[in-house]
Write a structure and sequence with these properties.
With 557 residues, this protein is α+β, with helices and mostly antiparallel strands. It folds into 2 domains: 223 residues, no CATH class; 196 residues, no CATH class. It is built from 11 helices and 21 strands. The strands form 5 sheets. A 6-stranded antiparallel sheet has the order 1-4-3-2-5-6, with helices on both faces. The mean pLDDT is 95.
Amino acid sequence: MDAITIQILRNKIASLVDEMHYHFYRSGYSTIIRESRDFSCVVLDRTGRLIVSPPMFFHAPVYRHLVGRILQVYGGKDGGAGEIREGDVFVSNHPYEGGIPHVSDMAFVAPVFANGEIVAFTGTLAHKADIGGMVPGSTSANATEIFQEGLLIPPIRIRDAGVALPDIERLMLANSRQPELVKGDVHAQIAVTEMGATRVKELCERFGADIVTGAFAAILRGSADELRAAIARLPAGAASAEGLLDSDGVVLDKPIKLAVTITIAGDRAKFDFSNSDPQAKGPVNLRPSMVEACVFYSLIGSLGPNLHFNDGMRDAVQFVYAPRTITNAEAPAAVSSYQMVNLKLVDVILEALAHFNPARATANAGASSALSIAWSKARPGQSNMQYEILGSAYGGGNGHDGASATACHLSNLHVTPIEILESEYPCRINRFDLLPDTGGAGRWRGGLSMAREYELLEDAVVIRRYDKAKFPPSGVDGGKPGGGARFTIRLGTEQEYVTPSSGRYEMKAGDRFLLQTAGGGGYGDPAQRGGKSVASDVSEGYVTRDGAQTFYQRKTN
């Protein structure tokens, strides 16, 4: 097949992914979809292999696991369609049977048929406002088994040859505290998934199904070849790294170790996670799909941003796990706090990869964190479930400072604007700013922590999930750690309290709390940071005058 046709079809699929993403974002009912944009839309080949990566990268490896299970259950033994029919839509939120990140994420996939055979799938994956479980919002900070995290849906049909199966939807909504939000998001998600399938079918009619599937295969081979060539340029050998999570949210005095050993041999890389701690009692366990996301993200970041991720890259990478470990948990281990674990694992993988390509080394980043508030009384016409995803800061790297107040690694999520929060929920945001001196000092400074102070206007249950309080993001090559994360509740009262970890807190109207994300680590010796850069940091408010003298031994006027 000629390269021009392949590139045209790659661009067609990329544009379709963007179109699906736009329509879902504009159709979402919950702030999780229309503000945080916690979702992905994809096009897959006939076996479930991703063709073009979505903006939310960490969802990218999930679909192969989900479609693989659908084909196993419903597909023909000869590799044909079996019981799968045109117009079918399948749904799942099962981390163990579908490879989904956690129970609150729900995926929908639809087959694309041409000449009576499956030629592709389209899919979407999105967080739901509530799917049951032990706490409002479902994402518990201290669940000890997956059954406490919500209704589990193995891969099953929700559309049968184009006919809706309303009993499935009724079952889902009966288990939700927010049925209207979930219903709206589900309908939008199914519509976008079906729209994607229609568009791919139109491509098959325009170009020919054999041309489209041939282009898919060529795109997958191309990414595999790109990655193998990049790996082959690395020095052969092995490197190991490890890092610690503050706790699992249940056993608060026990940190959790994440460990990797990377071996480079020729044009292949092996990632061995066997030395990671046993699976945890709390909800910080990972399924292999999430570990894969961390590995491929880190490889692209370390080897070169121009690499095109798709599932073809799997041909160049080997994964090794030990059973019942934090990176390869087995049911019924809880998984709802997976994302902060992902980000710590990325730190660990990047540290090991820096051995092979020091020029692309970077200090530890802050972390992703989540806040959910179940209000006792909602604003008129609004939901009583508030859910936010909060970023933090990147670490410094060779030749650049870390970014502040942004989503770190993997997700590309958005922070919910203050105007949305105050107009839709009974809360007031008294403060939203960067904290000086929280970016790790270095030749290249880490990004700063951000802080938000909330005032509750009604009684509420507040659930906060976060990491990097006990073990702040570390620097590299002489750089200093970034500021640690904090969560302080009941500000200005005798009950003011800095929480030790993620948790659930019942609070009253008038209570205030302050969340502070972690700052990025610094890169290189702080003494090598130029005087103009330090002076600029002080003038911009990133570093205080005392901080300039303490961290950089520089006096400023």
